[in-house]
């Protein structure tokens, strides 16, 4: 998670990634919005290495629906992993803040992770790709 | 002993972990005995005369006489569904008993910390000075974190107190949607007497709201709905009566707009029907009935509609209304299965809470010896940016950079006895309190500053300390005068009006009922803006929430009153695909000063009603489809105008194939 190896022995197979990140690893940037994968407040980036193609693939995922048992050998990047006010904020975070794209801020970590993952995969996305990427992130404050 | 709705809190279970708590809760067995009658809808409540007393009425002119002299009369009704707040952060709270002197800290996501303090103190039989309620920020509230939150906090506090341990309570989304109520569904009945040129001379209306199982804010909602119902129009003879129905559903509460989005829709619906009857374009009927310059509202408050008319004209101009209407008609003539629609709607949103007590506010400003400033006030940061605006006020008053000022959060410990944060007045009233505190400080420090005008705040602070001058001040704003006499139906309840207009274009698919929001132009009169970026954000957010209310958000219940739609997968709030492809917002240049904070206007709620421009644009498109299919006559469309409703309204050979 965020570049640090995490080993969990004897884990409850029902444990989802979201409560694990928040309660066990104390990474509270990823938020609980609905618990059913509909709102995107819990979006994180999952990266996996495929040995046959020798490539790493990145995709955005809803942490509330991922059992941690499915993450063997995977890498999870959360909002804390890409930048913070303590270290240095990431350009995506900076842009959203400066362009007034955030009001109460609750959905913002999820939005940033969706945008970040999109940019990792498509450095110059088209409008359709952007709409597709952000379609799963709900925001009640800005619309 | 008696449960009055599905979702009523019956008991609470405390455990060491979430999983444990859920398992324990499943083991609780409750045996029910059905009581009659079961009242779930407004119609059933009317049948059983189940209302929260009293009925409210607004009268102006002589309606019955006026009906005798009109060219035509029409009667109609419109249903409006409720709305779920769907704040991204669900109800959450943490109660920490301190163990000493019975002190208890309550960290809660709420708009009304004083209420939480009071209800926790009352539940634990403590004086208020032992309960400290802290709110750093709230992940969205929209009116839903006022009363229900207090109840949940009281329960959590009781548990914390009983076991002497910190207790956290966070509702899951499904529970949150079930337990907390939302916007009041409305039923509006209207009878309009009008002339052939579209002038509405007599209007007799009835508003019924579904208040749910307990009173909460239902009476105030229908009162506000009544006072704001005429929107931007002058009806020379008017009678409107309103009732809050008591039903066996979760208690409905405040939601951004507070009765106006519902009452306004009923009025606009009536106007659209009058226009159809006269064979006139809706915007012509809207223009002809609008307030003209200096006039009087139905409750006899003076109004100057100059800016309203300017917003209307500018919106029509900026949206190139006439040209686009022609383009829409051309498109419709060429496409059978897709139709476009265009509508423009005016807005007059009165801002005011009904009494001077409800708009009082307080603040606290400390200057430390290194010249840095700590400020706090009674308003809650819900995402509307109030803390940013307050720091701006301090910066302007004390003439220091914003980076030198810090605002930590809101707490009953620092600023006591505050009103709930809502009603579009938070930044305004709290800003005036902050301004007051700063001016008190400046007055005290005037001799120090004049002795060393080139000095820094650090110098002045140190000098003040050396001369025993206090560097801390409270600020107070007593509130705006406001009164409304419901016996006479007259008063001056509102402090000012926010004017605006919105023009929306949509495209509907007649086969699926889906619609696309193509373009919206909004023009608003917001006075002198303290922070245009925040204001635009509020208008955009409110507008989209309105679009959701009127077109895609639908709460579904079972015949037994159980809520079916319990999450974002069933209850659809607007997402990125629902934003109009072009969204333009512009403000009128500020023209008049007032005694609000720097002559600004509060914008939290007004934009929401403008979402109905999309409703009426879809109405327009459906009308075009029906006309083409040879279906004339009045079109009755209820809110929310979901794809199902749009599809079935575009009647064709397929809709005739299914049994009705």
Automatic annotation (TrEMBL), chain A:
Coiled coil ranges: none
Listed InterPro entries: 2Fe-2S-bd, 2Fe-2S-bd_dom_sf, 2Fe-2S_ferredoxin-like_sf, 2Fe-2S_ferredoxin-type, 2Fe2S_fd_BS, Ald_Oxase/xanthine_DH-like, Beta-grasp_dom_sf
Keyword Oxidoreductase: yes
SUPFAM superfamilies on file: 2Fe-2S ferredoxin-like, CO dehydrogenase ISP C-domain like
Keyword Nucleotide-binding recorded: no
Molecular function terms from GO: 2 iron, 2 sulfur cluster binding; iron ion binding; oxidoreductase activity
Record keywords: 2Fe-2S, Iron, Iron-sulfur, Metal-binding, Oxidoreductase
Gene3D superfamilies on file: 3.10.20.30, [2Fe-2S]-binding domain
Domain 2Fe-2S ferredoxin-type: 1-82
PANTHER family, per database record: XANTHINE DEHYDROGENASE
Protein name, per record: Aldehyde oxidase 2
Organism the protein comes from: Mustela putorius furo (European domestic ferret)
UniProtKB/TrEMBL annotation, chain B:
Sequence ranges assigned to domain Aldehyde oxidase/xanthine dehydrogenase first molybdopterin binding in this UniProt record: 57-290
Cofactor: FAD; [2Fe-2S] cluster; Mo-molybdopterin
Residue span, Aldehyde oxidase/xanthine dehydrogenase second molybdopterin binding domain: 315-580
Keyword Transmembrane: no
InterPro entries in alphabetical order: Ald_Oxase/Xan_DH_a/b_sf, Ald_Oxase/xanthine_DH-like, AldOxase/xan_DH_MoCoBD1, AldOxase/xan_DH_MoCoBD2, AldOxase/xan_DH_Mopterin-bd_sf, OxRdtase_Mopterin_BS
One Gene Ontology molecular-function label: iron ion binding
Protein keywords: 2Fe-2S, FAD, Flavoprotein, Iron, Iron-sulfur, Metal-binding, Molybdenum, Oxidoreductase
Gene3D superfamilies on file: Aldehyde oxidase/xanthine dehydrogenase, a/b hammerhead, Aldehyde oxidase/xanthine dehydrogenase, molybdopterin binding domain
Family: Belongs to the xanthine dehydrogenase family.
Protein name: Aldehyde oxidase 3
